[in-house]
Amino acid sequence: MVNMVVKKNNFERILVIKLRHFGDVLLITPLLTTLQQHAPNAKIDVLLYSGTEKILSKYKTLHHIWTIDRQLKHAGIKAQILGEWALFQSLKKQNYSLILNLSDQWRSAFYCRFLKPELSIGFHYAKRDNALWCSCYDHLVPVSNHVKQHTVINNLSILNPLKLSKIITQVSMSYGSDDIFYVEKILHERSLSDYILIHPFARWHFKTWQASCFSKLINYLTAQKEKIVITGGPEKTEQDYVLNVIEDCSQKEDIVNLVGLLSFSQLAVLIERAQIFIGVDSVAMHMAAALKTPSVVLFGPSNLKQWSPWEAPHTLLWAGDHRKLPLPEEVDTRTCDRYLDAIPLKKVIDAVDFWRTQRKVR
């Protein structure tokens, strides 16, 4: 066993691997901050799926972001092999002294083995309980408590073998002065200073609430003289969904539709300045939590202990209080069942009204 207590402050080049989605990537920022705190002179890189690096585009602690192009698998076996080899050679030149693998994919394990760092640490996943997975690491951290803990804590647990004296748990959503300028221009052009931000869509159908319910919620809020900003991604399905929401709204002049018009860092500024955030289990919800914007969030069959808003003011409304839900590990992500439709509109209105009475001018 490597004497990690002795070596923990000697890492000059660190690679953190997280091959998941936007929200998952955002939730590794406490880990990155903790590493920077204990190794201020180290150069810290991350390896992510291409596209997800956008969530960390303004995160200053990072030295470099490496990405895996998932589209290569559609370009043929030759292109895929050449792409993987080129990435491996680039990573090899970095001479990493520490690699932390937060992922369960085999390719990430092989990087830990064949990049030959001084120390590699991964998770001992049940589905990877075999000699080959174990041989790729110097140390494996148990995951038996992961279903009972928040994802932030689970990510940080990979540092346990290093016995660090202080752990940072704050999620960081970063933005720059250019993002502030862009958002202030939008707010000025639309005469917005006090607004509620709604981010209604999620990448999976089963995580969304029916459009008509959001329309009724917005109608209630605009009748109370509230201004509404709606945000979302550039995908056509998301834009069409929001158009359906707006179509049934009675006071469209009090709604600003910014779907597809913002980067993540620009969205962060807009969320931080909102009086209240309303949304579902998505990366925007985790951004709102990181930015401490009071939130009302609607959840379906996700593990609440792992994915609820972290260390932030919020009200969580769970569909499981109103209907039977499948276990998180049994959810078919292709299902057309909208589990969130079981959440009554009145419950959402009551939760939003609570935060409306609590808010202060920012």
TrEMBL record:
The UniProt record lists the keyword Glycosyltransferase: yes
Record-level GO cellular component terms: cytosol
GO annotation terms (biological process): lipopolysaccharide core region biosynthetic process
MF GO annotations: ADP-heptose-lipopolysaccharide heptosyltransferase activity
Keywords recorded for this protein, A-Z: Glycosyltransferase, Transferase
Protein name listed in UniProt: Lipopolysaccharide core biosynthesis
Gene label: rfaQ
